[in-house]
Amino acid sequence: MLQLLIDMAVDFDEPICFDNPLRQVIINTHSAAVVQQVPENSLLIADFKQTRVDGKKSKRVRFRYLADTWRDDSSDADRLSKTIPKGDLLTYLNPVPRNSDNNNDTRVIDRPDLQFLMP
Q: Which of 14, 33, 42, 104 has its CA 20 to 30 A from that of 27?
């Protein structure tokens, strides 16, 4: 299904014409499996940023992208707030497994993928 959506969008390697119209496809997902399959230069992550407007706290949505893609402009002074840290993305793609046998949360130290990093 994802490949069909990718095929529907414009192919920038080919000239824009009748067979390759200027077209984008936007999908919204919470699925880590879908995010893992999206081309890295197409991925935008929406999250909330707390701001102050007229002295009042508010939240706004911001869209962030992966570093080292075409969206990443190294001359942009605001670059770090616009890129998503790899740790944030990995946390989303590799959520903490839940133990279904009881209601206790799994401890960080119990994660097999982190145990070899622990002293």
A: 14
* Closest among 93, 84, 99, 105 to 30, alpha carbons compared: 93
* Residue 12 backbone class (left: φ over 0; alpha: ψ -120 to 50; beta: rest): alpha
- 45-88: pLDDT as tens digits: 898 888 888 989 999 898 999 888 888 887 877 777 888 887 88
Q: How far is CA 81 from CA 49, 65, 68, in A?
A: 10, 10, 14
- Residues 10-56 have pLDDT tens digits of 887 889 999 889 888 888 988 888 888 888 888 898 988 888 889 89
Residue 8 corresponds to which amino acid? M
CA 70, 35, 63, 65 torsion-angle sign: negative
